[in-house]
From TrEMBL:
Pfam entry (one): Glyoxalase
GO molecular function: dioxygenase activity
SUPFAM superfamilies: Glyoxalase/Bleomycin resistance protein/Dihydroxybiphenyl dioxygenase
Origin superkingdom: Bacteria
Identification of the protein by name: Catechol 2,3-dioxygenase
Length: 128
């Protein structure tokens, strides 16, 4: 077996529309085809790849399973992202990764999943 890349992440949501709004309106993913599963949800795409699956309609786990700490996306347009997060009152932490100098921005989705956005080192520091 050879791993060729990441296929998708799945998050569980208390409120499907709120989660879709975050990932689509804030992070710019697009909703696309999703097979007709017996439970509500959405598949969100970057270009033609479904990279985030949202599952809804079942209770949130009381004790989260697994050890995944966060999901990370490659992104562009740091200033517009910072402006959008501020506009929506979403707190974030932004810093440069020492050694690579890329910008790393961390925030949380509406259900508490940690999201990392990695921006090219060539992008200027955002203005307040």
């Amino acid at each position: 077996m050879t791993i060729e890349g990441m296929n998708h992440f799945t998050v569980v949501s208390n409120d499907l529309e709120r989660s879709k709004a975050f990932y689509m309106n804030i992070l710019g993913l697009k909703e696309g085809y999703r097979p007709p599963f017996a439970f509500p949800g959405a598949w969100l795409y970057a270009d033609n790849q479904a990279i985030l699956h949202i599952m809804a309609g079942k209770p949130m786990p009381l004790n989260a399973t697994g050890v995944i700490d966060h999901m990370a996306f490659t992104a562009t347009n740091l200033q517009a992202t910072v402006d959008c997060l501020k506009l929506h009152g979403i707190q974030f932490d932004l810093h440069r990764l020492k050694g690579l100098e890329i910008w790393q921005l961390f925030c949380h989705d509406p259900d508490g999943a940690k999201v990392e956005l990695d921006f090219p080192a060539s992008e200027p520091e955002p203005k307040s």
